[in-house]
Amino acid sequence: MTEVLLVASTWPQFGVLSTSVRKFNELGARVRLAGTFPMDAEGIPEQLAEVALAEAAHQLPRNLKHRSQALRRRGSKSPAGLRVWMQSHRDSWLRSHARNADVLVALDQGAVYTVWRLAEYNRAAAAQFGLAPALRAVEALKERGGSTGGRGSVLPPLHAVTRDVKRSVDNLPAQIIRAATPRPVMRSSVGAKLWRTALAAPGVPIRVRAATSRYVAEGMRWAGRSSGAALALTDAAAKIPDPKLKADLYDEAMMQEVGKGISPRNMAKAVAARLAHADAEFAKGRTKEAAEALNRALFLDFHRVLHIDQLSSPLAKDAEGFVAPLHRSKAFQALSRPRGRKVPAAPAPTDRPLRLLITTSANDNFLHLIKEHFGDHPGVELRYLDLAANKHLKRISWAAPRMLQDRLADGQSDYQEEVERLMRPHLDWADTVFLEWAAGPASMLTTIDPGDTRIIIRLHSYEAFTRWPHMTDFSRVDDLVFIAPHVRDLTTSLVPMLRGEQAPHMPVIDNAMDLSGFDRPKLAEARYNLGLIGISQVAKDPKWALDVLERVRKHDDRYRLILVGDDMNPKTSRATKEYLAEFEELLEPLEESGAVVRLGPTDDVPSKLVEIGTILSSSVREGCHVGVMEGAASGAVPVVRDWPFYAGKPNSARTLYPEGWVVGSPQEAAERILKVTATEESWRAAGDLAKEHALTVWDWPVVQKHFEKLLLDEG
Q1: How many helices (H) and strands (E) does the chain have?
Q2: 184 band by pLDDT with thresholds 50, 70 and 90
Q3: Contacts of 366 (CB under 8 A, 6+ apart)
Q4: In this structure, which of 228, 517, 567, 671 has its CB flanked by the most CB atoms within 10 Å?
């Protein structure tokens, strides 16, 4: 078997990489990827899985922090390509696979020097720069029977590789180049401005302008000027007519700021450029290229740093206006065209139990009671399918580029055939499919006509902030279940298909929760304990709860805040890491004084709520906030922030919860707490009212009837 080793210093274009890996495999080659880019970043494992590289991908050292001071100092002054080699050359995995490789491939300019050096140790290997030359090298090897023969390197010689990238700007006006020296000048605003002026100079060849902008961006990053790096790339992109290159530069500009946890200023331009590229490719009938561009546009438009890892989101201000550019794209219009189903869903059988397939991909957190109830129901024959447990089903469930290509090609793709082969047996068996989460599997399932099987999808809240609802054909869905009216309002404002004639039925049904076990006697001292359950996301905004705590402690220092749940993961994103750092700084003195107690994650929330007298919701947005509902069921007094994302809208926290529970500010929250807990009698009375509401509205015996009506048309 031919061994191919890919080396990359920056994130590859995964759509192109996926296609190339399949071609390598078809030629009988095994592909491995080594990279200094962060492989634990958001989305990378999923993307690598899509190209069958999840187990053949290797994280190379990303910096020199564990090396000698002298080497670190040398590295800081070296060109990017040389730094990659300095970081990687001692890596045993890389050296081992490089020695055995038949073809060594640099995927980007930063990896060229490393591949050149590896080729010095393996002179029989063909060393190539780029995927297309690498594929030709593998084809040549196959024609020779797989023997390596000569290395056939097309890499530049060593002295050319080690030159700084700044040499590529020699064609710029001489006076500008003389005025702006390399990286150190980027530290000054004057020097940075001069480089940006160079990028806008007239008469510069397109490729030179692009190469220059990337060099300037690298220098600005080195100088700590991430926004300046983004501006440099944006300035160049604005002067470039080529749709793909323009889109690439705008994309890189956006990611400069996103990588630092900053909401990018040029996000709209980056998305517009990708959509323009998608439309251009689609007009030429190049559906594969159009799908890749469209996939990237959706990825950028719904990046988690914009919508999930911040305290706000562009969707909060004008959701419909935010997605309007998508719907003006010809390629996206083709994607969004409802294809419907040939026959409607058949009515539930009357002569045998209903065959119910409940399915999800790994996350069944909110399914346990539903599975248990209908698994024992005499009128139901239940099957459960975890798509993530089968590698073939998992692969097709999250294969976004293939889904898009299928939609753009109007179903003329091998992806639809694969979905048919893997899902049709389940659809043929089931009378009704209940799919949890309107994410990748929903897009996958609606790729094919379900026949007369009834399709029900449940959308919680998170999915509305992702690309997946925009890739789902809801004309093939019978019921789209929401957990709250405000989530339904947001989703329908984003997806026009949900406002059209072929929209599914959209009921609102509360989450399935067993709340009876939370009804336990509270300790008297719980009166002074505030509780916050769940602090693992930025959207939970626990800093708001600390503000409330400090306000009530000014009146009585017996008040404490108890935090229950996992901490935020700083690896999620740079934005999460920065929020967590600020939160920890505020938390440290409060923990030391005993004003805040962290209990961490627990499998027994009811026992922890015995100690909590007031349950808080500090979030900026929620679907229904299960922690508040559980706290109310325990007899804790609910104090719910008027979630800013939905505040003032027709449906919000104020319409979801009883009057009096929701507050508009930390001061109003403190006033409610002090008033309700002024005496033990008033506190317990308010807690009893909250408990009564929770158990009569949200407890499983009540919600169960809504699910029976949905699935069995009972009640």
Answers
A1: 32, 16
A2: low
A3: 436, 460, 511, 512
A4: 228
Length, in residues, of the chain: 715
Spatial CB neighbours of 26, under 8 Å, sequence gap ≥ 6: none
Closest among 501, 476, 477, 445 to 340, alpha carbons compared: 476
Alpha helix stretches (DSSP H) within 435-573: 440-445, 485-494, 542-553
User: Which amino acid, one-letter code, is at 570?
Assistant: P
CB 367 within 8 A of CB 393: no
Structure-token match 């298909």, residue found = 497
Name residue 562's beta-bridge partners.
531, 597
Are 326 and 295 contacting, i.e. CB atoms less than 8 angstroms apart? no
Q: Yes or no: say if 101 and 3 are a contact pair by the CB < 8 Å rule.
A: yes
Alpha-carbon gap, residue 331 to 276, rounded angstroms: 9
Q: Which segment of 189-193, 431-435, 698-702 scores lowest on mean pLDDT?
A: 189-193
How far apart CA 578 and CA 538 sit, in angstroms, is: 10
What's the rounded Cα separation, in Å, for the pair 103 and 114?
Answer: 14
pTM of the model: 0.75
Q: Which two tokens stand for residue 329?
A: 């794209």
Does residue 3 register a pLDDT over 70? Answer: yes
Which pair of structure tokens corresponds to residue 545? 């709860």
Q: Is 636 helix (H, G, I), strand (E, B) or coil?
A: coil
Helices 189-199 and 206-222 meet at what angle, rounded to 10?
160
At a CB cut-off of 8 Å and minimum separation 6, what does 456 contact? 432, 433, 434, 435, 477, 478, 479, 480, 481, 710, 711
Cα 412 to its chain centre, rounded Å, is: 28
Burial of 351 (0-12, 13-18, 19+ CB in 10 A): exposed
State how far the Cα of 516 lies from the Cα of 505, in Å rounded to an integer.
31
Q: Phi first, then psi: give them for residue 128, nearest 5 degrees.
A: -130, 155
Angstrom distances, CA of residue 240 to CA of 197, 292, 391, 596: 15, 20, 42, 55
Paired tokens of 332: 């996206």
- CA distance to 48, 456, 463, per residue, from 419 (Å): 20, 18, 22
Q: Provide CB contacts within 8 A for 502, sequence distance 6+.
A: 338, 340, 474, 475
Read off the tokens for 177.
Answer: 């180049």
| Predicted confidence (pLDDT) at residue 276 exceeds the cutoff of 90 | yes
Contacts of 465 by beta carbon, 8 Å cutoff, 6+ apart: 302, 304, 307, 308, 313, 315
* pLDDT for residue 195: 61
Q: What is the pLDDT of residues 527-558, one digit of tens each?
A: 999 999 999 999 999 999 999 999 999 999 99
Looking from the CA of 495 toward its CB, the CA atoms found within 13 Å total 31
